[in-house]
Amino acid sequence: MPKLRSLALLASLALAPAARAPAESAAAPAAAVSPADPAVQADAAAMAAAAEKDPAGKVVARLHETLLGVMKEAKTLGYEGRYERLKPVIHDLFDLPYMAEKSVGRHWKEAGEPNQRALVETFSRFTVANFAGRFDGYSGQSFRTLEVETSTHGTVLVRTRLDEPNEEGVALDYRLRQVDGGWRVVDIYLNGTVSELALRRSEYSALVQREGFDALLKKLDEKIRDLAQTRATQS
Predict the structure, then answer these.
(1) R_g of the chain, CA atoms, integer Å
(2) Mean pLDDT in consecutive groups of 10 residues from the start of the chain, 235 residues
(3) How far apart are CA 105 and CA 27, in angstroms?
(4) Cα 161–163–167 angle (5° rounding)?
(5) For the whole model, what pTM was predicted?
(6) Is 235 contained in some domain?
(7) The pLDDT value given to residue 9
(8) What is the predicted pLDDT for the residue at 17?
């Protein structure tokens, strides 16, 4: 896996400048004590254990477990195998209809039901393809759940890190909301500030404004084909 390719997942296909998360989503300031302090390590371990037992934390833990499995078997599975392994998990853990709606902002209401259905279907395929295309190898990466925080509008933030051997790693924060009594992911923040959903909304809304919904659906289909073709030739 090329250096940090998996870490660039969230911003890799967006055309717009990085969008910042709301202030409450910023990473917490570093503690004034050494992270090597045994008391600090014990507190961090206790927080992580509690976070992983939290219902929202369990959702993110399942996603991470699936991603690691796909990464470790990436070459054996190939792109298609990774796609099929990830598809049911992403559909189960992400609120894809909600994300598709928010990805086009105010244009959703004026789109009409056929375009809305088409966008949800295409957006869902693209989301799976993006994960399958980007998490295409393993070189010792690991995920750590740090904590779960109550956030705005009934959502929660699950703060995690993706660690790379001999590298600093990167913060990955997941925003989840309740759907039918369970928690589902609706956004991911890279380094605590770069919102995947905001990036897509900026790009997709501009494209719909210029060229209409058909152009957006065509663009997403092109990206799906590009991911499949590029990863197939690299397998």
Answers:
(1) 18
(2) 41 36 39 48 55 87 97 95 98 98 96 96 97 93 95 95 89 96 96 91 96 96 92 60
(3) 26
(4) 130
(5) 0.81
(6) no
(7) 44
(8) 35
Residue 170, domain member (yes or no): yes
Question: What's the pLDDT score for residue 234?
Answer: 61
Q: How many domains does the chain have?
A: 1
Between the CA of residue 32 and those of 35, 40, 113, 130, 144, what are the distances in Å?
9, 11, 53, 38, 21
Neighbouring residues of 202: CB distance < 8 A, sequence distance ≥ 6: 14, 16, 17, 19
Residue 233 located in a structural domain = no
pLDDT at 168: 83
Closest among 36, 25, 42 to 173, alpha carbons compared: 25
CATH code of the domain containing 53: 3.10.450.710
Length of the chain in terms of residues written:
235
Residue 1 falls within a domain, yes or no?
no
pLDDT at 166: 86
